[in-house]
Amino acid sequence: MSFEDFNDFFSDNFDNEEDNNDNDNEMLVDKALFEIIQKYKNYKQGLSKQYPDEDEFGEIIEYFILKPELDFALSIVEDALSIYPQAISIWLDKVTIYIKMDDFILAEQTLLIIQKFDPLEPYQYVLKIEMSILRGRLEDIVDTMKQAEQILKFSNDNLIDFYFDAIDLFEDYEYFDNAYDLLIKILQIIPDEDFAIGKLLQLTDLSKKHLATIEFCNLMIEKMPYEISFWTIKGICYSYIRQFENSIESFKFAYVIDENNALINNLLLLTYIKTKKYVNASELYQDGLHKTPPIKFEKELVSELFLKLKLFPEARHVFIKNFNENPDLRSEYELEKVADIYLKEKKYSKALYFLEQIIKRNPYNYLMYYKTGICYEQLNKYHKAIEHYKSSINLNFKNSKSWLNIIECYLKLKNYDLALSFAFLYLKNFKIHHKLIYFISVCYFKLNIELQAINFFMLGYKMNKRTLVNFYKYCPEARQNELFNKIINKLNLLL
Protein backbone atom coordinates (compact mmCIF):
# COMPACT_ATOMS: atom_id res chain seq x y z
CA MET A 1 0.00 0.00 0.00
CA SER A 2 1.41 3.36 -0.97
CA PHE A 3 1.48 6.20 1.52
CA GLU A 4 -0.96 8.11 -0.69
CA ASP A 5 -3.45 5.21 -0.50
CA PHE A 6 -3.12 5.05 3.25
CA ASN A 7 -3.44 8.82 3.60
CA ASP A 8 -6.67 8.78 1.54
CA PHE A 9 -8.08 5.96 3.62
CA PHE A 10 -7.08 7.71 6.83
CA SER A 11 -8.80 10.91 5.73
CA ASP A 12 -11.99 9.10 4.75
CA ASN A 13 -12.23 7.17 8.02
CA PHE A 14 -10.61 9.19 10.79
CA ASP A 15 -10.21 12.86 9.94
CA ASN A 16 -13.84 13.68 10.76
CA GLU A 17 -13.49 12.72 14.37
CA GLU A 18 -16.78 14.23 15.52
CA ASP A 19 -18.84 12.08 13.14
CA ASN A 20 -17.41 8.93 14.69
CA ASN A 21 -18.35 9.89 18.23
CA ASP A 22 -22.07 9.14 18.43
CA ASN A 23 -21.97 8.14 22.08
CA ASP A 24 -19.55 8.24 24.97
CA ASN A 25 -18.35 4.63 24.72
CA GLU A 26 -17.75 4.85 20.97
CA MET A 27 -16.00 8.18 21.47
CA LEU A 28 -13.49 6.66 23.89
CA VAL A 29 -12.68 3.77 21.55
CA ASP A 30 -12.51 5.90 18.41
CA LYS A 31 -10.46 8.59 20.07
CA ALA A 32 -7.87 6.09 21.29
CA LEU A 33 -7.68 4.44 17.88
CA PHE A 34 -7.59 7.84 16.20
CA GLU A 35 -4.55 8.83 18.26
CA ILE A 36 -2.72 5.60 17.40
CA ILE A 37 -3.51 6.00 13.70
CA GLN A 38 -2.37 9.63 13.88
CA LYS A 39 0.93 8.51 15.41
CA TYR A 40 1.38 5.97 12.60
CA LYS A 41 0.43 8.54 9.95
CA ASN A 42 2.96 11.09 11.30
CA TYR A 43 5.66 8.39 11.34
CA LYS A 44 4.86 7.40 7.74
CA GLN A 45 4.97 11.04 6.66
CA GLY A 46 8.30 11.59 8.37
CA LEU A 47 6.74 14.20 10.66
CA SER A 48 7.72 12.24 13.76
CA LYS A 49 10.27 9.62 14.70
CA GLN A 50 7.84 8.14 17.22
CA TYR A 51 6.12 5.02 15.93
CA PRO A 52 3.41 2.84 17.50
CA ASP A 53 4.50 0.19 19.95
CA GLU A 54 3.81 -3.50 19.31
CA ASP A 55 0.38 -3.49 20.99
CA GLU A 56 -0.65 -0.31 19.18
CA PHE A 57 0.29 -1.82 15.85
CA GLY A 58 -1.85 -4.79 16.83
CA GLU A 59 -4.85 -2.51 17.37
CA ILE A 60 -4.45 -0.86 13.97
CA ILE A 61 -4.04 -4.22 12.23
CA GLU A 62 -7.06 -5.69 14.00
CA TYR A 63 -9.17 -2.71 12.94
CA PHE A 64 -8.31 -3.20 9.27
CA ILE A 65 -8.79 -6.98 9.47
CA LEU A 66 -12.30 -6.51 10.89
CA LYS A 67 -13.16 -3.72 8.45
CA PRO A 68 -12.17 -5.79 6.34
CA GLU A 69 -9.38 -4.02 4.44
CA LEU A 70 -6.91 -6.89 4.21
CA ASP A 71 -4.47 -5.24 1.81
CA PHE A 72 -4.14 -2.27 4.17
CA ALA A 73 -3.78 -4.60 7.13
CA LEU A 74 -1.02 -6.60 5.39
CA SER A 75 0.87 -3.44 4.51
CA ILE A 76 0.76 -2.27 8.13
CA VAL A 77 1.95 -5.74 9.23
CA GLU A 78 5.01 -5.38 7.01
CA ASP A 79 5.74 -1.95 8.50
CA ALA A 80 5.34 -3.33 12.01
CA LEU A 81 7.64 -6.30 11.33
CA SER A 82 10.30 -4.00 9.91
CA ILE A 83 10.39 -2.37 13.36
CA TYR A 84 9.59 -5.43 15.51
CA PRO A 85 10.90 -8.41 13.47
CA GLN A 86 10.39 -10.92 16.30
CA ALA A 87 6.93 -9.77 17.41
CA ILE A 88 5.02 -13.05 17.48
CA SER A 89 1.63 -11.35 17.76
CA ILE A 90 2.27 -9.43 14.51
CA TRP A 91 3.39 -12.60 12.73
CA LEU A 92 0.18 -14.28 13.90
CA ASP A 93 -1.80 -11.35 12.48
CA LYS A 94 -0.04 -11.93 9.19
CA VAL A 95 -1.13 -15.58 9.15
CA THR A 96 -4.70 -14.52 9.96
CA ILE A 97 -4.71 -12.13 6.99
CA TYR A 98 -3.36 -14.78 4.62
CA ILE A 99 -6.04 -17.23 5.81
CA LYS A 100 -8.75 -14.64 5.20
CA MET A 101 -7.27 -14.09 1.73
CA ASP A 102 -7.36 -17.89 1.16
CA ASP A 103 -3.61 -17.79 0.54
CA PHE A 104 -2.83 -20.95 2.51
CA ILE A 105 0.65 -21.45 1.04
CA LEU A 106 1.89 -18.09 2.38
CA ALA A 107 0.05 -18.76 5.64
CA GLU A 108 1.91 -22.08 6.02
CA GLN A 109 5.25 -20.44 5.22
CA THR A 110 4.60 -17.76 7.84
CA LEU A 111 3.64 -20.40 10.42
CA LEU A 112 7.01 -22.10 9.86
CA ILE A 113 8.74 -18.80 10.69
CA ILE A 114 6.68 -18.47 13.88
CA GLN A 115 7.49 -22.04 14.93
CA LYS A 116 11.22 -21.28 14.65
CA PHE A 117 10.80 -18.12 16.77
CA ASP A 118 8.60 -19.70 19.44
CA PRO A 119 7.30 -23.30 19.19
CA LEU A 120 5.45 -22.79 22.49
CA GLU A 121 3.13 -20.07 21.11
CA PRO A 122 -0.30 -21.77 21.41
CA TYR A 123 -2.21 -19.72 18.86
CA GLN A 124 -0.11 -20.83 15.88
CA TYR A 125 -1.63 -24.32 16.22
CA VAL A 126 -5.14 -22.88 16.34
CA LEU A 127 -4.51 -21.07 13.05
CA LYS A 128 -3.14 -24.27 11.59
CA ILE A 129 -6.36 -26.08 12.59
CA GLU A 130 -8.44 -23.31 11.03
CA MET A 131 -6.61 -23.77 7.75
CA SER A 132 -7.32 -27.51 7.87
CA ILE A 133 -11.03 -26.82 8.39
CA LEU A 134 -11.18 -24.32 5.53
CA ARG A 135 -9.27 -26.63 3.17
CA GLY A 136 -11.42 -29.61 4.10
CA ARG A 137 -8.43 -31.54 5.44
CA LEU A 138 -10.16 -32.78 8.55
CA GLU A 139 -7.63 -35.56 9.15
CA ASP A 140 -4.96 -32.85 9.58
CA ILE A 141 -6.86 -31.50 12.60
CA VAL A 142 -6.01 -34.64 14.57
CA ASP A 143 -2.34 -34.42 13.58
CA THR A 144 -2.14 -30.74 14.58
CA MET A 145 -3.84 -31.49 17.92
CA LYS A 146 -1.30 -34.22 18.66
CA GLN A 147 1.59 -31.97 17.62
CA ALA A 148 0.36 -29.11 19.83
CA GLU A 149 -0.21 -31.38 22.85
CA GLN A 150 3.21 -32.99 22.43
CA ILE A 151 5.00 -29.62 22.29
CA LEU A 152 2.90 -27.80 24.92
CA LYS A 153 2.54 -30.63 27.44
CA PHE A 154 5.36 -29.30 29.60
CA SER A 155 3.58 -25.98 30.09
CA ASN A 156 0.05 -26.30 31.48
CA ASP A 157 -0.62 -22.61 30.97
CA ASN A 158 0.23 -22.75 27.27
CA LEU A 159 -1.68 -26.00 26.81
CA ILE A 160 -4.79 -24.60 28.51
CA ASP A 161 -4.56 -21.41 26.43
CA PHE A 162 -4.36 -23.54 23.30
CA TYR A 163 -7.40 -25.59 24.35
CA PHE A 164 -9.51 -22.49 25.07
CA ASP A 165 -8.53 -20.81 21.79
CA ALA A 166 -9.23 -24.03 19.88
CA ILE A 167 -12.63 -24.34 21.61
CA ASP A 168 -13.54 -20.84 20.39
CA LEU A 169 -12.47 -21.80 16.87
CA PHE A 170 -14.42 -25.06 16.88
CA GLU A 171 -17.50 -23.22 18.14
CA ASP A 172 -17.17 -20.64 15.35
CA TYR A 173 -17.22 -23.45 12.77
CA GLU A 174 -19.85 -25.44 14.74
CA TYR A 175 -17.52 -28.36 15.46
CA PHE A 176 -19.19 -28.79 18.82
CA ASP A 177 -18.00 -32.36 19.48
CA ASN A 178 -14.38 -31.22 19.14
CA ALA A 179 -14.99 -28.22 21.38
CA TYR A 180 -16.64 -30.45 24.00
CA ASP A 181 -13.75 -32.94 24.00
CA LEU A 182 -11.23 -30.15 24.57
CA LEU A 183 -13.25 -28.70 27.41
CA ILE A 184 -13.25 -32.09 29.13
CA LYS A 185 -9.45 -32.18 28.74
CA ILE A 186 -9.20 -28.78 30.46
CA LEU A 187 -11.30 -29.98 33.39
CA GLN A 188 -9.24 -33.14 33.68
CA ILE A 189 -6.16 -30.94 34.12
CA ILE A 190 -7.82 -28.25 36.27
CA PRO A 191 -11.09 -29.64 37.72
CA ASP A 192 -12.05 -26.37 39.41
CA GLU A 193 -11.47 -24.10 36.38
CA ASP A 194 -14.49 -21.82 36.79
CA PHE A 195 -14.85 -20.70 33.20
CA ALA A 196 -14.61 -24.29 31.91
CA ILE A 197 -17.20 -25.50 34.43
CA GLY A 198 -19.52 -22.69 33.40
CA LYS A 199 -19.09 -23.60 29.72
CA LEU A 200 -19.57 -27.35 30.20
CA LEU A 201 -23.36 -27.25 30.17
CA GLN A 202 -23.47 -25.06 27.06
CA LEU A 203 -21.22 -27.39 25.06
CA THR A 204 -23.01 -30.44 26.42
CA ASP A 205 -26.25 -29.10 25.01
CA LEU A 206 -24.70 -28.11 21.65
CA SER A 207 -23.01 -31.49 21.22
CA LYS A 208 -25.94 -33.45 22.71
CA LYS A 209 -23.52 -35.31 24.98
CA HIS A 210 -25.67 -35.34 28.10
CA LEU A 211 -24.89 -38.97 29.01
CA ALA A 212 -21.16 -38.37 28.55
CA THR A 213 -21.36 -35.33 30.83
CA ILE A 214 -23.21 -37.32 33.48
CA GLU A 215 -20.42 -39.94 33.42
CA PHE A 216 -17.78 -37.20 33.58
CA CYS A 217 -19.55 -35.50 36.51
CA ASN A 218 -19.62 -38.84 38.35
CA LEU A 219 -15.84 -39.12 37.93
CA MET A 220 -15.33 -35.56 39.16
CA ILE A 221 -17.67 -36.12 42.12
CA GLU A 222 -15.59 -39.14 43.18
CA LYS A 223 -12.57 -36.83 43.37
CA MET A 224 -14.40 -33.76 44.71
CA PRO A 225 -17.65 -34.89 46.38
CA TYR A 226 -18.43 -31.39 47.70
CA GLU A 227 -18.01 -29.55 44.40
CA ILE A 228 -21.57 -28.30 43.95
CA SER A 229 -21.12 -27.44 40.25
CA PHE A 230 -20.79 -31.05 39.12
CA TRP A 231 -23.86 -32.14 41.10
CA THR A 232 -25.79 -29.27 39.52
CA ILE A 233 -24.66 -29.99 35.95
CA LYS A 234 -25.38 -33.68 36.46
CA GLY A 235 -28.92 -32.86 37.62
CA ILE A 236 -29.55 -30.56 34.65
CA CYS A 237 -28.30 -33.24 32.22
CA TYR A 238 -30.67 -35.78 33.75
CA SER A 239 -33.48 -33.26 33.19
CA TYR A 240 -32.49 -32.90 29.53
CA ILE A 241 -32.88 -36.65 29.00
CA ARG A 242 -36.07 -36.61 31.12
CA GLN A 243 -34.72 -38.76 33.95
CA PHE A 244 -36.31 -36.47 36.50
CA GLU A 245 -35.97 -38.75 39.54
CA ASN A 246 -32.19 -38.89 39.01
CA SER A 247 -32.27 -35.16 38.45
CA ILE A 248 -34.00 -34.63 41.80
CA GLU A 249 -31.45 -36.83 43.58
CA SER A 250 -28.57 -34.83 42.10
CA PHE A 251 -30.14 -31.52 43.08
CA LYS A 252 -30.80 -32.85 46.59
CA PHE A 253 -27.10 -33.62 47.04
CA ALA A 254 -26.27 -30.12 45.82
CA TYR A 255 -28.87 -28.74 48.24
CA VAL A 256 -27.21 -30.57 51.15
CA ILE A 257 -23.88 -28.97 50.19
CA ASP A 258 -25.40 -25.47 50.06
CA GLU A 259 -29.07 -25.17 50.98
CA ASN A 260 -28.92 -21.39 50.58
CA ASN A 261 -27.90 -21.59 46.93
CA ALA A 262 -30.66 -19.82 44.97
CA LEU A 263 -29.92 -21.66 41.70
CA ILE A 264 -30.18 -25.08 43.36
CA ASN A 265 -33.41 -24.13 45.11
CA ASN A 266 -34.94 -22.96 41.85
CA LEU A 267 -33.80 -26.02 39.90
CA LEU A 268 -35.17 -28.34 42.57
CA LEU A 269 -38.45 -26.41 42.69
CA LEU A 270 -38.75 -26.59 38.88
CA THR A 271 -38.13 -30.35 38.85
CA TYR A 272 -40.63 -30.97 41.65
CA ILE A 273 -43.26 -29.08 39.62
CA LYS A 274 -42.39 -30.98 36.43
CA THR A 275 -42.79 -34.29 38.25
CA LYS A 276 -46.04 -33.13 39.95
CA LYS A 277 -44.48 -33.39 43.41
CA TYR A 278 -46.38 -30.33 44.56
CA VAL A 279 -46.14 -31.13 48.28
CA ASN A 280 -42.34 -31.32 48.03
CA ALA A 281 -42.31 -28.14 45.96
CA SER A 282 -44.48 -26.32 48.49
CA GLU A 283 -42.29 -27.43 51.41
CA LEU A 284 -39.13 -26.33 49.58
CA TYR A 285 -40.71 -22.96 48.83
CA GLN A 286 -41.83 -22.41 52.42
CA ASP A 287 -38.42 -23.43 53.78
CA GLY A 288 -36.78 -21.00 51.38
CA LEU A 289 -38.93 -18.13 52.59
CA HIS A 290 -37.79 -18.68 56.18
CA LYS A 291 -34.08 -18.73 55.44
CA THR A 292 -31.88 -15.74 56.25
CA PRO A 293 -31.85 -14.10 53.79
CA PRO A 294 -34.91 -15.62 52.07
CA ILE A 295 -34.30 -17.54 48.86
CA LYS A 296 -35.12 -15.54 45.73
CA PHE A 297 -37.30 -17.95 43.81
CA GLU A 298 -38.15 -17.23 40.17
CA LYS A 299 -41.58 -15.60 39.92
CA GLU A 300 -42.66 -17.91 37.09
CA LEU A 301 -41.92 -21.02 39.16
CA VAL A 302 -43.72 -19.79 42.24
CA SER A 303 -46.71 -18.69 40.21
CA GLU A 304 -46.78 -22.06 38.41
CA LEU A 305 -46.69 -23.87 41.75
CA PHE A 306 -49.65 -21.86 43.06
CA LEU A 307 -51.56 -22.53 39.83
CA LYS A 308 -50.98 -26.26 40.18
CA LEU A 309 -52.26 -26.03 43.75
CA LYS A 310 -55.27 -24.02 42.45
CA LEU A 311 -54.22 -21.09 44.64
CA PHE A 312 -55.12 -18.47 42.04
CA PRO A 313 -54.97 -15.32 44.22
CA GLU A 314 -51.53 -16.35 45.46
CA ALA A 315 -50.40 -17.00 41.87
CA ARG A 316 -51.50 -13.49 40.90
CA HIS A 317 -49.90 -11.86 43.90
CA VAL A 318 -46.51 -13.18 42.86
CA PHE A 319 -46.64 -10.59 40.08
CA ILE A 320 -48.84 -7.86 41.57
CA LYS A 321 -49.21 -7.79 45.33
CA ASN A 322 -51.80 -5.06 45.52
CA PHE A 323 -54.37 -5.05 42.74
CA ASN A 324 -55.53 -1.60 43.74
CA GLU A 325 -52.20 -0.14 42.70
CA ASN A 326 -51.97 1.69 39.38
CA PRO A 327 -51.25 -0.96 36.70
CA ASP A 328 -49.40 1.70 34.68
CA LEU A 329 -46.55 1.18 37.11
CA ARG A 330 -46.36 -2.53 36.26
CA SER A 331 -44.52 -4.14 33.38
CA GLU A 332 -46.35 -5.63 30.39
CA TYR A 333 -44.98 -9.00 31.40
CA GLU A 334 -46.54 -8.78 34.88
CA LEU A 335 -49.85 -7.58 33.46
CA GLU A 336 -49.95 -10.45 30.97
CA LYS A 337 -49.17 -13.02 33.67
CA VAL A 338 -52.02 -11.72 35.82
CA ALA A 339 -54.37 -11.72 32.82
CA ASP A 340 -53.41 -15.33 32.04
CA ILE A 341 -54.18 -16.38 35.59
CA TYR A 342 -57.60 -14.72 35.42
CA LEU A 343 -58.20 -16.58 32.15
CA LYS A 344 -57.40 -19.87 33.88
CA GLU A 345 -59.89 -18.91 36.59
CA LYS A 346 -62.46 -18.04 33.90
CA LYS A 347 -62.73 -14.54 35.35
CA TYR A 348 -62.93 -12.94 31.93
CA SER A 349 -64.02 -9.44 32.93
CA LYS A 350 -61.00 -9.08 35.22
CA ALA A 351 -58.66 -10.53 32.59
CA LEU A 352 -60.02 -7.97 30.10
CA TYR A 353 -58.94 -5.07 32.29
CA PHE A 354 -55.30 -6.14 32.25
CA LEU A 355 -55.27 -7.16 28.59
CA GLU A 356 -56.63 -3.76 27.56
CA GLN A 357 -53.91 -2.07 29.61
CA ILE A 358 -51.30 -4.01 27.62
CA ILE A 359 -52.90 -3.14 24.26
CA LYS A 360 -52.85 0.55 25.20
CA ARG A 361 -49.12 0.31 25.76
CA ASN A 362 -48.34 -1.97 22.83
CA PRO A 363 -51.00 -2.04 20.10
CA TYR A 364 -48.91 -4.42 17.95
CA ASN A 365 -49.05 -7.56 20.11
CA TYR A 366 -51.35 -9.94 18.22
CA LEU A 367 -51.60 -12.38 21.14
CA MET A 368 -53.17 -9.75 23.36
CA TYR A 369 -55.92 -9.15 20.80
CA TYR A 370 -56.45 -12.91 20.55
CA LYS A 371 -56.74 -13.29 24.32
CA THR A 372 -59.04 -10.26 24.50
CA GLY A 373 -61.20 -11.90 21.83
CA ILE A 374 -61.45 -15.02 23.99
CA CYS A 375 -62.66 -12.93 26.93
CA TYR A 376 -65.36 -11.18 24.89
CA GLU A 377 -66.44 -14.48 23.35
CA GLN A 378 -66.81 -16.10 26.76
CA LEU A 379 -68.81 -13.05 27.90
CA ASN A 380 -71.15 -13.60 24.89
CA LYS A 381 -70.04 -10.32 23.27
CA TYR A 382 -69.44 -11.94 19.92
CA HIS A 383 -69.16 -8.81 17.77
CA LYS A 384 -66.45 -7.42 20.08
CA ALA A 385 -64.74 -10.81 20.05
CA ILE A 386 -64.73 -10.90 16.23
CA GLU A 387 -63.33 -7.38 16.14
CA HIS A 388 -60.37 -8.38 18.30
CA TYR A 389 -59.79 -11.67 16.50
CA LYS A 390 -59.62 -9.72 13.23
CA SER A 391 -57.11 -7.32 14.79
CA SER A 392 -55.02 -10.32 15.79
CA ILE A 393 -55.12 -11.63 12.20
CA ASN A 394 -54.17 -8.22 10.81
CA LEU A 395 -51.02 -8.34 12.94
CA ASN A 396 -50.33 -12.04 12.34
CA PHE A 397 -52.18 -13.56 9.39
CA LYS A 398 -50.97 -17.06 10.32
CA ASN A 399 -52.71 -17.05 13.70
CA SER A 400 -55.07 -19.89 12.73
CA LYS A 401 -56.76 -19.99 16.14
CA SER A 402 -58.19 -16.51 15.59
CA TRP A 403 -59.65 -17.66 12.26
CA LEU A 404 -61.35 -20.66 13.88
CA ASN A 405 -62.70 -18.51 16.69
CA ILE A 406 -64.15 -15.96 14.24
CA ILE A 407 -65.98 -18.77 12.45
CA GLU A 408 -67.32 -20.09 15.74
CA CYS A 409 -68.47 -16.62 16.77
CA TYR A 410 -70.45 -16.32 13.53
CA LEU A 411 -72.02 -19.71 14.29
CA LYS A 412 -73.04 -18.42 17.69
CA LEU A 413 -74.51 -15.34 15.99
CA LYS A 414 -76.30 -17.71 13.55
CA ASN A 415 -74.68 -15.87 10.66
CA TYR A 416 -73.95 -19.01 8.64
CA ASP A 417 -73.10 -17.28 5.37
CA LEU A 418 -70.26 -15.28 6.94
CA ALA A 419 -69.13 -18.34 8.87
CA LEU A 420 -68.86 -20.24 5.58
CA SER A 421 -66.99 -17.39 3.90
CA PHE A 422 -64.33 -17.34 6.64
CA ALA A 423 -64.22 -21.15 6.69
CA PHE A 424 -63.29 -21.35 3.01
CA LEU A 425 -60.74 -18.55 3.43
CA TYR A 426 -59.25 -20.64 6.23
CA LEU A 427 -59.04 -23.69 3.94
CA LYS A 428 -57.11 -21.66 1.35
CA ASN A 429 -54.43 -20.66 3.86
CA PHE A 430 -54.17 -23.42 6.47
CA LYS A 431 -54.17 -27.18 6.85
CA ILE A 432 -57.58 -28.84 7.21
CA HIS A 433 -58.75 -28.96 10.83
CA HIS A 434 -61.46 -31.43 11.88
CA LYS A 435 -63.14 -28.77 14.01
CA LEU A 436 -63.47 -26.52 10.95
CA ILE A 437 -64.97 -29.35 8.87
CA TYR A 438 -67.70 -29.85 11.45
CA PHE A 439 -68.36 -26.09 11.47
CA ILE A 440 -68.83 -26.13 7.68
CA SER A 441 -71.19 -29.08 8.02
CA VAL A 442 -73.20 -27.13 10.62
CA CYS A 443 -73.50 -24.15 8.25
CA TYR A 444 -74.79 -26.28 5.39
CA PHE A 445 -77.19 -28.09 7.72
CA LYS A 446 -78.60 -24.79 8.98
CA LEU A 447 -78.87 -23.48 5.40
CA ASN A 448 -80.75 -26.68 4.43
CA ILE A 449 -78.07 -27.73 1.94
CA GLU A 450 -78.25 -31.32 3.15
CA LEU A 451 -75.94 -33.07 0.67
CA GLN A 452 -73.01 -30.74 1.42
CA ALA A 453 -73.77 -30.97 5.13
CA ILE A 454 -73.53 -34.77 4.94
CA ASN A 455 -70.31 -34.74 2.88
CA PHE A 456 -68.47 -32.46 5.31
CA PHE A 457 -69.95 -34.29 8.29
CA MET A 458 -68.57 -37.60 6.97
CA LEU A 459 -65.14 -36.02 6.35
CA GLY A 460 -65.04 -34.58 9.88
CA TYR A 461 -66.14 -37.89 11.38
CA LYS A 462 -63.42 -39.78 9.51
CA MET A 463 -60.82 -37.26 10.67
CA ASN A 464 -61.77 -37.36 14.34
CA LYS A 465 -65.05 -38.89 15.49
CA ARG A 466 -64.31 -38.00 19.10
CA THR A 467 -64.87 -34.33 18.33
CA LEU A 468 -68.41 -34.95 17.09
CA VAL A 469 -69.43 -32.68 19.97
CA ASN A 470 -68.36 -29.72 17.77
CA PHE A 471 -71.19 -30.61 15.42
CA TYR A 472 -73.94 -31.39 17.93
CA LYS A 473 -73.10 -28.27 19.93
CA TYR A 474 -74.63 -26.15 17.15
CA CYS A 475 -76.91 -28.80 15.59
CA PRO A 476 -78.55 -30.67 18.48
CA GLU A 477 -81.53 -31.32 16.24
CA ALA A 478 -79.34 -33.57 14.06
CA ARG A 479 -79.55 -36.23 16.77
CA GLN A 480 -83.15 -36.78 15.68
CA ASN A 481 -82.26 -36.73 11.97
CA GLU A 482 -82.76 -40.26 10.67
CA LEU A 483 -80.34 -39.84 7.75
CA PHE A 484 -77.50 -38.56 9.98
CA ASN A 485 -77.98 -41.43 12.40
CA LYS A 486 -77.80 -43.96 9.57
CA ILE A 487 -74.59 -42.37 8.31
CA ILE A 488 -73.02 -42.51 11.77
CA ASN A 489 -73.92 -46.19 12.14
CA LYS A 490 -72.40 -47.01 8.73
CA LEU A 491 -69.26 -45.02 9.52
CA ASN A 492 -68.86 -46.81 12.85
CA LEU A 493 -68.97 -50.13 11.03
CA LEU A 494 -66.39 -48.97 8.46
CA LEU A 495 -64.06 -47.28 10.97
Tell me about this structure.
With 495 residues, the chain is mostly helical. Among the domains are: 214-309, Tetratricopeptide repeat domain (Serine Threonine Protein Phosphatase 5, Tetratricopeptide repeat); 432-495, no CATH class. Helix content is 74%, strand content 0%. It has 28 helices and no strands. The chain is elongated and about 100 Å long. Residues 17-29 have low confidence and may be disordered.
Which value, in Å, is the CA radius of gyration? 34 Å
Shape: elongated
- Span of the ends, CA to CA: 80 Å
Helix content: over 70%
CATH class of one domain: Mainly Alpha
Name given to the CATH homologous superfamily of one domain: Tetratricopeptide repeat domain
SSE order: HHHHHHHHHHHHHHHHHHHHHHHHHHHH
Biggest sheet, in brief? none
